[in-house]
Structures are given as C-alpha cells and as structure tokens.
Amino acid sequence: MDYEIMMNGNVRIGMQAPEFEASTTMGDIKLSDYKGKWVVLFSCPGAFLPTCTTEMIAFANANTYFDERNATLIGLSVDSNASHLAWAYDIYMKTGIRIPFPIIADGNGVIARKYGMISPDISNTEAIRNVVIIDDKGVVRTVLEYPKSTGRFIPEIIRIIDSLQISDTEEVSTPANWFPGSLVVNIPPQTFDELIERANYLEMNNNALDWYLVFEERNKKLE
Prior knowledge:
four-stranded antiparallel β-sheet; alpha+beta; five-stranded mixed β-sheet; Glutaredoxin; 11 strands; disordered N terminus; 34% helix; 7 helices; single chain; elongated
C-alpha cells in the first residue's frame, strides 16, 4: 500500500494519512509528532514565488485561528531548507511577519508524491498547490487542489475544519454556503420508525424542506 501511494499519490478521503519524516525550517518532524491534533499539510511550487509568498503571509496571519481549532499548519515545497529559511527571513525583514509553522524541504519529492502533490501533466518535479486536512486521529478528511496561478482562500480552509469538527461532535452535516453560527442539517432518517418520528416533528416545526432536509441551530438536537 505504501508503495502504491508513493508511486501514484493515491491519497483519498477516509484513509490513514501516510507517515513521513522531514527536515523543516523548525527542525526534523514526523507526522506522528502531531498525534491528537488536526494537521493542514499544504504544498507550494517553490520559495520566493509571488503567489506562494502571499499564501505564506496569509497562513501566518491566520495561524491563531488554526491554533484555536487544535490544528497545525505544515508547508511543503521541493526547494531546500536553506531556500525556505532565506525566504522566511526575507518575509520577516520586509513585513515583520514570522512564519510560525514548519516548511518541509522535500527536495527529492518523496512526500509530495506520496500525497499526490505533484501533477505529471504540469511538472514532474514541482509541487502544485494542494491542501490535505488530516484529523486528530490521523485520517485524511479533505483533499484540495489548486492551479499554480490561483492562490488559496484561507478562510475556506478554516471553514472546512469547522464543518468537519461540528459534524464529528454533533452528528450533523453542513449545507451549501454554511458558515459557523448558521443552521446545520440533521442526518436523514435511516429507518421507517425514524421517518415517522421526523414527520411528527415536522408537524410542529417549520424548519424543513421535507423529512429528508431539516435545518437546526448549532448544538440543537431533535426532541
């Protein structure tokens, strides 16, 4: 399985995230070091690139919001650790912003290939803009890909983590255009008895399209 993942970048939602060891701007790390935390692993084509620089600054500015969600940011590119250090230092000197998360130096592309962050149709050596969200149990929960020319929208990544965490703790799903504090969607009935119970509930509440689509406030359950 590890060989298949490494060769094909076959990382899928629901699978255990592949372990890795890496040199970073904050020293050597392993994915298992972050057990019990959510991890946002994101790749950039390289250091000192314009769009990548804006993303690093944006992720750095949003780091507190990830911390509040028990989530750790980890960047990656196929450039060297020296390049990443010089890049981070340049950002700091020009903006006063410190990059508060590690950036992996994946010079041989092993981790990038393992996580599907290299697209042969674009480049065999340069990572594209991927985001892999891994939960606190080490399970891949989200895989996002962006074209080289398009910078990531950091609030959307945070929103996805919020959605996943609320779904995990309250057994609900989030509708289109959901944002924290707005209505969530109850899980549809799984048995006929549950359907009848839902139908009776709907007679007293006007918060549904039908029995299969019921909106509720956060933390509120059917009674």
